[in-house]
């Protein structure tokens, strides 16, 4: 069966997490992703957070599936020539070097355009043009600068970063969309273009609702669904809302049976308005369905803390899974707090290919997250990440280099 991006060749100049997330997605959709790495070292994540000595880390393997690896020294003049050939043969160059690194290598936008006017040059940077454009950026910096940290955590505590890699993987996703969009436009224009996804912008895009709230706060001085509301303690900026639901249906994380010893014995419970009467029945507070202090969403807002405390008295008598089963019967929206252990062992996620077991020649079997985006005509087959330089000879031969030329370039330290 053909793949959606079959025939698209990607020069993958990415490293660490944000760029590799993007090119891995493109590879899963069928693009030929050629990862260019520095000989001897490669992507720094190959050796970061290792769990097995001298074996590519899970950090690397889980972000670089379905790619080919070639090692080229792009600061060596002959290596540079090889890279020029690659630029001529590829459709997209993806990079997430520190600002200016590609230019310093000699590959400015103008030079790339000379070599291949159809080339799409896609970059992740920490910031877009502005005061911070020259800064190097990692995940948590982006979470802080993009508005996520100031709006995450509890009101009486410091800003908090989230475990979801919204700065790195989130921006990689944004970049992937930019790339396929540019590829589509190229079918009309015949020209390449630059695609930029700045991590601050990507995080802010995911925090869109908080900028919505900033403006609501400025206009009205309050936000009734926030836990601060009953006491009216709002400052000038959107506060941290703890576990409050971001939408119009109040929610909170509640303890379940076993919470004293299991840090994940919790459930997210949403008091969705249409099922309020059912919630009252389930928790044994039937009178709340008609009590004017509780019967309508507006009446409930000042009492949310007490309401959730009462619901928690009920959830604490059930495991999170028992509670889920009961609540789902009544269409009450809720979700268990799943640990990574539980997710890794979840059979339905294995069945859909969202969790995949992969075999690797030096590491053996390991689990990874497969493609979260499912296309009916372009199914994803997750293949192991490449060893450093595993495909150098293969790719060089495809570029037209003879075995003798390859050997000479290797002797010169170019590849
Ligand atoms: C992530 C980041 C902070 C890492 O910084 P770093 O480890 O110092 O790496 P840099 O990107 O600065 O370095 C790349 C250097 O390696 C060189 N290099 C990379 N591949 C090479 C190759 N194959 N051959 C020779 N040199 C190579 C580059 O030319 C550059 O050298 P220079 O600084 O002399 O110009 C930085 O790349 C960055 O800010 N990237 C953009 C934002 C981003 O993606 N951040 C999230 C990462 S998950």
UniProtKB/TrEMBL annotation:
Regions annotated as coiled coil: none
Binding locations of CoA: 17-18, 38, 96-98, 104, 136-139
Binding site for substrate: 247-249
Pfam families referenced in this protein's UniProt entry, alphabetically: CoA_transf_3
GO molecular-function term, one example from the UniProt record: formyl-CoA transferase activity
Top-level taxon: Bacteria
Pathway field: Metabolic intermediate degradation; oxalate degradation; CO(2) and formate from oxalate: step 1/2
EC category name: transferase
Reactions catalysed: formyl-CoA + oxalate = oxalyl-CoA + formate
Listed EC numbers: 2.8.3.16
Family in the record: Belongs to the CoA-transferase III family. Frc subfamily.
HAMAP family assigned to the protein according to its UniProt record, in alphabetical order: Formyl_CoA_transfer (MF_00742)
Function noted in UniProt: Involved in the catabolism of oxalate and in the adapatation to low pH via the induction of the oxalate-dependent acid tolerance response (ATR). Catalyzes the transfer of the CoA moiety from formyl-CoA to oxalate.
Protein name: Formyl-CoA:oxalate CoA-transferase
Organism: Paraburkholderia solitsugae
Designated gene of the protein: frc
């Amino acid at each position: 069966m053909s793949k959606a991006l079959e025939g698209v060749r990607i020069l993958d100049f990415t490293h660490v997490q944000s760029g590799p997330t993007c090119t891995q997605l493109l590879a899963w959709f069928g693009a030929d992703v050629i990862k260019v790495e520095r000989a001897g070292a490669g992507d720094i994540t190959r050796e970061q957070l290792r769990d097995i000595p001298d074996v590519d880390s899970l950090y690397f393997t889980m972000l670089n599936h379905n790619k080919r690896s070639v090692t080229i020294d792009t600061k060596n003049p002959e290596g540079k020539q090889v890279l020029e050939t690659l630029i001529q043969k590829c459709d997209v160059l993806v990079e997430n070097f520190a600002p200016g690194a590609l230019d310093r290598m000699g590959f400015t936008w103008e030079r790339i355009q000379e070599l291949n006017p159809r080339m799409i040059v896609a970059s992740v940077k920490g910031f877009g043009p502005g005061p911070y454009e020259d800064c190097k950026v990692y995940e948590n910096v982006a979470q802080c600068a993009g508005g996520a940290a100031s709006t995450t955590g509890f009101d009486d505590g410091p800003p908090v970063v989230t475990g979801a890699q919204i700065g790195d993987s989130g921006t990689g996703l944004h970049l992937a969309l930019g790339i396929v969009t540019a590829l589509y436009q190229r079918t009309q224009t015949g020209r390449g273009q630059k695609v930029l996804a700045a991590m601050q912008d990507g995080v802010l895009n995911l925090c869109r609702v908080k900028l919505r709230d900033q403006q609501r706060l400025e206009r009205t001085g309050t936000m009734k669904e926030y836990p601060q509301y009953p006491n009216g303690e709002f400052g000038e900026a959107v506060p941290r809302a703890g576990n409050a639901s971001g939408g119009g249906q109040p929610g909170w994380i509640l303890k379940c049976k076993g919470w004293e010893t299991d840090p994940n014995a919790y459930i997210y419970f949403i008091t969705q308005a249409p099922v309020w009467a059912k919630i009252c029945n389930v928790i044994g507070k039937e009178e709340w369905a008609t009590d004017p202090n509780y019967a309508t969403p507006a009446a409930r807002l000042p009492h949310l803390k007490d309401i959730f405390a009462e619901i928690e008295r009920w959830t604490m008598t059930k495991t999170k899974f028992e509670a889920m089963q009961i609540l789902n019967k009544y269409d009450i929206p809720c979700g268990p707090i799943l640990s990574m252990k539980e997710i890794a062992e979840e059979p339905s996620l294995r069945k859909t290919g969202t969790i995949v077991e992969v075999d690797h020649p030096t590491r053996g079997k390991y689990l990874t997250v497969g493609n979260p985006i499912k296309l009916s005509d372009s199914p994803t087959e997750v293949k192991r990440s490449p060893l450093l330089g595993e495909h150098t000879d293969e790719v060089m031969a495809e570029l037209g280099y003879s075995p003798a030329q390859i050997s000479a370039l290797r002797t010169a330290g170019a590849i």
